[in-house]
From TrEMBL:
UniProt cross-references to PANTHER family, sorted A to Z: HTH-TYPE TRANSCRIPTIONAL REGULATOR MCBR (PTHR43537:SF39), TRANSCRIPTIONAL REGULATOR, GNTR FAMILY (PTHR43537)
Keyword Transcription included in the entry's annotation: yes
Keyword Protease in record: no
Originating species: Cognatishimia coralii
InterPro entries to which the protein is assigned, alphabetical: GntR_C, TF_FadR/GntR_C, Tscrpt_reg_HTH_GntR, WH-like_DNA-bd_sf, WH_DNA-bd_sf
Keyword vocabulary terms for this entry: DNA-binding, Transcription, Transcription regulation
Protein name, entry field: GntR family transcriptional regulator
């Protein structure tokens, strides 16, 4: 007998909804919100939102202020350096593992996502850019079948994504380089090392843009 599909709890739905708001630009660094404001934004009760905020605060994706307010933290130079180091340690390893598992099937699905990303870039859709860029990376990482590393990567993106939203708003989507074509080419060739290096370069380019934005 097949096991019944695992049901997604209300708390997990709310966690995902608020995480997406952080990742994809609804909440930006320095924007203060309240528990009631978040609950109204996602159409939820305050109690499950409070639990999610506690979880995201522990992960560093949110920070508590006075007067019961919360904000997405602004990064500083030292934090960008730490995030760059951590992402370059974890994400290329996920790529290596994913390519070794699924080299023949990954390149086509990644190309489809990257085409949607290119359309968002061409039309200047910041939210679309952030969404499809995330989809590209995590569609790839999920194929590594490495749940511990994957959860670590997700936590790092929650701390990086909001600052990338600032970069998009300041410089536009057309000025954001990536290494997706090189990554897809390497995967198509079954070259895990080259694919990992392409993602490492992609990370460093994006984090460099974030650091630049902090100084202007």
């Amino acid at each position: 007998m097949n096991a019944e599909p695992k049901k997604i709890t209300e708390h997990e739905v709310i966690y995902r909804r608020i995480s997406d708001a952080i990742l994809f630009g609804e909440l930006v660094p320095g924007q203060a919100v309240t528990l009631h404001g978040l609950a109204e934004m996602i159409g939820s009760g305050v109690m499950p939102v409070r639990d999610t905020v506690r979880r995201l605060t522990s992960a560093g994706a949110l920070r508590r202020l006075g007067n019961r307010r919360i904000e997405v933290p602004r990064l500083n130079d030292a934090e960008v350096e730490e995030l760059s180091f951590a992402r370059c340690a974890i994400e290329p390893k996920l790529v290596e593992m994913a390519v070794k598992n699924n080299a023949k099937t990954l390149s086509k699905s990644l190309k489809d996502i990257d085409l949607e990303l290119d359309q968002a870039i061409a039309s200047g859709q910041i939210e679309g850019y952030l969404l499809h860029n995330f989809r590209f990376h995590f569609h790839l990482y999920q194929h590594a079948n490495a749940s511990i590393l994957l959860s670590m990567a997700e936590a790092l993106w929650l701390r990086t994504g909001p600052s990338l939203r600032v970069v998009c708003g300041r410089y536009g989507t057309a000025n954001l380089p990536d290494m997706h074509d090189e990554t897809i080419s390497a995967i198509r060739d079954g070259d895990a090392g080259r694919a990992a290096q392409a993602i490492r370069t992609d990370i460093l380019q994006g984090m460099g843009q974030i650091k630049k934005s902090l100084r202007e």
